[in-house]
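Lay summary. Proteins are chains of building blocks that fold into shapes, and those shapes determine what they do. In this project we predict the shape from the chain. Here is one chain we studied, written as its sequence of building blocks.
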Amino acid sequence: MLNVWPVNTQPLLDSDALETEGPVVPPEGERRAWPFAIAWPPSGQSVQERYRYLTEIYTSRSGRETRSARRSRPRKRLEFSCVLHDGGLAAWQAFVHRALVQNLVVPQSHLVRQLPAEMPQGTNALYLEDSPDWMLPGMAIVIGDGSRRETLTIGAVYGDLNYFTAGSQYPWPAGTPVYAGLTGVLDQAHDAELLTAMVARLGVTFHVRPLSEPAPAPAEPPLTFDGREVFLMRPNWVQPVSQSWVRPVDELDYEIGPTSRYSPVPFAADTLQATYVGATREEVQAIVDLFHRMRGRQGEFYAPSWLPDLTLREGLTAGATTLRVQGTESAEVYAASLTHRALFVRLRGGELLLRKVTSIGVIDDAQGNDSVINLASAWGDSVPASQVVMAGWLLLRRFASDDLTVEWRTSAVATVQFGMVALEALAAEALEGEVL
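And here is the predicted shape, written in a compact code that computers can read:
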């Protein structure tokens, strides 16, 4: 690792390996680092990240949807609080006049490195061993904490050496934090709650400038089934899970005499609204990655109901392509269903078995009068009924909204609440091409 800061950078600047173009479009005009401390949990204040895609949905009379994504990159905004004290209120009142029309850079506290050595004033390059992937041309970084922190724009990258478009304004000691920055603007409607003459609570809405950060690069889905990925996270039952149904109806009413009702849609679409808890940043990112892969409401995925929808009469038999369910209700209700065309079986060992449904019939024998679900593929192993924790429906769904809010409860734990709409189980289709 280098122990000194580069002075003569011209040989490197002439190299073909130098990266001078990045995946972002820096906004024009001056950029200033956000100077106030963000009130992160557990201070009693949460920090919210909101993502918004834009999907056009055309619904036919029969209920089938054609969905088109207008954005491949979501709009993003942050909502957070700041507690101003020890002169912070006066600093804020002086700061806000220009800040409402100025590009600001907010540090991302979870994307941080430390300066490996002292950084003299005027330094125009930074060496970081194993440089993070957020050090890209065009990206803004924030150095330091408090009112003296400053923002620098990366102009070029050569391996682990990062060049700035201008030198630093201040000297910084070794160990000073270097944050990835989000460039954006404040919401114009801006209020502060003055608690005393010296203390105030500030609620901030920060809109990230479009194209000022790299496009989302979500990881590959951990599990796919029938051409779609499967969302496996279970809802947090501490908070109620709501479920609603809708089925369009045409009604003919002459204002006298009887009325006539008809539904052109052959199924009732249910919307499941639930809260999910990410205990680590990786778990939270898994939900956000799903949202990015789907581009909001455009894509579709499978999700288990996580309810005991099906009460088994017997266990699973290796090589069999059937599942016997107690009672005839399942056959009577779901035999002609266009949505209930797949199921899951969860075992005590944690394994999750997924199967497509081809048909549902009725059987009447010595064991009873039951429903028999015929499957597209056979069971691999025999499993006694005592080892089955739950069996239920695996429904094809999409996000109910193009908006997703991640509410950070701590620096690593967050809750995410969203709705999922059930869809007709049609053949899988690829998402359309890239749009902005």
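What the prediction tells us: DSSP finds four helices and 27 strands in the chain.
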